[in-house]
Design a protein that fits this description.
Length: 381
């Protein structure tokens, strides 16, 4: 609906993707400030503020559509995107009040909750457009108004039920970290935190997973359409991808807790490589279904395991801003992938998209391999 509204308001399909990119960049822009506020004021007020920005952005978007303003739609999308960082950070908030041995499955459950949105979202969009049209309002403003109401409910729930503040609960819990940094309760500068290898690997896993997934997933429907596939089969491919991203997240969380963060990141990166290799051959629906599932589940493994690994190496008063910085980088990667995949596809088709995705996946694998060799040398020394 966002791209359709953008194309209608701009009068040119070339501008249809800009509001979506603005939403991603808004998400990136707000990630660190929200994380910083979490460390300073607590998780509850920071989450509430993040979701309030979502309410404001949804209202601006609805008014822009009703008023015929393309610039207003871009602004509303950017503001609404800022609320996504609160949603993203909630996985850390839920996990940090649990022991380290259970954090993977908690994050997995939070990601699995995205399945509810994936199923309910289209139903809400259809119902809200019908209601708006029946009320004499521009129909595409309906989903924005529905989003404002639902996100407003989330604000009320956070302010009412998130007590005591999870930050205070985490501070009172014995610190469980993989490394020694911050375990004495001190708060390290962000540059020092990012020197830690575990932090670098965790952030890189989420960043690469996001970049590769967005590049393949964004252009895949157009690729299938160009090869004569009907909307029904394209929808099936998107559904298979969604199952990979969210449907198996609870299983991923259990694997993370049982076998460790690093092995799951390795397995996720292998799936990203496999999806990248299959992508150039994806004119065949069966191959595309497999590639879409692998890139979705590869992202899932890197995201869940990377998130758990990042929490492990941080003290409670370091987590918000560090996690915010990591999510900001992942959001920039998503926005970059979204903007780049179109020109790459236009220049060289899915062959070039697969090559670009493979290059990103190999960066992650190379870092993991170097880390493994360094650990072997340290043990043998």
């Amino acid at each position: 609906m966002l791209t359709i509204s953008a194309a209608n308001l701009a009068g040119n399909a070339a501008y249809a993707g800009i509001p979506g990119a603005a939403m991603l960049f808004g998400r990136a822009l707000a990630a660190y400030p929200i994380g910083w506020l979490m460390d300073r004021a607590g998780r509850r007020p920071a989450l509430a503020l993040g979701y309030l920005m979502g309410v404001a952005g949804a209202v601006v978007g609805a008014l822009a559509i009703m008023g015929g303003s393309y610039a207003g739609l871009v602004a509303g999308a950017a503001i609404f995107g800022m609320s996504r960082t609160a949603s993203d950070q909630s996985r850390y908030v839920a996990a940090e009040v649990h022991p380290a041995r259970r954090r993977g499955r908690i994050i997995g459950r939070m990601v699995f909750a995205g399945t509810i949105g994936a199923i309910a979202g289209p139903l809400i969009v259809r119902a809200s457009t019908d209601l708006a049209e029946g009320a004499g309002i521009e129909q595409f403003a309906g989903p924005w108004l529905a989003a404002a109401v639902l996100v407003g409910v989330a604000v009320a729930l956070i302010l009412t039920f998130v007590r005591p503040d999870p930050r205070d609960m985490a501070v009172q819990t014995p610190f469980e970290a993989v490394g020694r940094g911050g375990s004495d309760g001190s708060v390290r500068p962000l540059r020092e935190i990012f020197r830690a290898v575990n932090v670098q690997v965790a952030v890189l896993a989420m960043l690469v997973g996001q970049l590769v997934m967005v590049m393949v997933m964004t252009i895949a429907p157009l690729h299938l359409h160009n090869h004569g596939h009907v909307p029904t089969t394209i929808s099936i491919a998107v559904a298979v991808h969604t199952v990979g991203m969210f449907g198996l997240a609870a299983l991923t969380g259990r694997l993370v807790d049982r076998y460790g963060r690093m092995p799951v990141i390795v397995l996720g990166s292998v799936q990203l490589i496999a999806a990248s290799v299959l992508t150039p051959f994806s004119a065949d629906l069966g191959v595309m279904l497999l590639a879409m599932f692998l890139v979705g589940y590869g992202w899932n493994m890197c995201f869940v395991a990377g998130s758990a690994l990042l929490i492990d190496g941080l003290s409670p008063r370091e987590r918000g801003r560090t996690q915010g910085a990591g999510d900001a980088l992942a959001a920039v990667a998503a926005a970059t992938g979204s903007l780049a995949t179109g020109p790459v596809f236009s220049a060289g088709g899915m062959n070039w998209v697969g090559a670009a995705a493979l290059a990103g996946s190999l960066v992650l694998v190379t870092v993991l391999a170097r880390r493994g060799l360094a650990r072997q040398r340290a043990v043998g020394a």
